[in-house]
Amino acid sequence: MRILLAPMEGLLDHSLRDTLTRVGGVDRCVSEFIRITDQLLPARVFTRVVPELLHGGRTAAGVPVRPQLLGSDPACLADNAARLAELRPPGIDLNFGCPAPTVNRHRGGAVLLDEPGLVHAIVSAVRRAVPAGVEVSAKMRLGNADEARMLDCARAIADAGAGELVVHARTKLHGYRAPAYWERIAEIRATVAVPVVANGEVWTVADAQRCLQASGCDALMLGRGMVADPGLALAIRGAAVPAWADLLPLLAHFWHRIASHVAPRHRAGRLKQWLNLLRRRHPQAQAAFDAVRITNDPVQVGLRLFGGPALLDAAD
Fold this sequence. Notes:
This protein is an alpha/beta fold. Helix content is about 40%, strand content about 15%.
């Protein structure tokens, strides 16, 4: 079974990718999207979002990272994909799933699922623009407002030359509300001849088992579930999972990583964002969250969590 780590704008950036892949169990990551509008981006834009491109396209743990492009202009996407391919990424992914209103208003993400012809044109243009050895994949939802064009879009992506399709089992209108409609992924699998990866609402091993059964897939993409439980990929594989005490060095590593590229006033927010999700799986994360909840001062955060007993006392 393959397990992929999802792209999550505003949450799962290169610092958290680096941290989570150190735990183990993940076969590949997809980056948060790189927005393509009407210009050819310089290489530094790609490496800023995906610094792993400067290190063979892999995290420090050796997990490949596939950059994701988002846009609606086939020619401009193709030009940028060709430039991105010069950096030798482990494939290029295309975003047809983002539900963010700002993105959708600018004709990007899930709103494109109303236009299967355009979806086909984008994938086809990118596939032609990059060398044959660079795999092109795509991620889609079940639709925009409804599922009426679900199969048309899946066929458009596969017929245009994508080598893999990730399906988030909700429409844009569903957002991130439970449930995810995993059984609909089975219909897509029966329609296309490319590998299909199931995504959406997998928080536990039981969720993963139900998702695989309902979708018929043998591959999963984990998002918020993996952020809330860094050992989830290992647990799904039946391997030993880290205890809270094992995660403490990872929290410190993440804090060190974000200090290198996040403005001081935003660092505490990034750490609290992760701790907030960790509370779903690890009760001990509540004490850590409470210790920094009312401060955004990075010095105080460092002292309270990594220079004092607040976090260590809550360990297993």
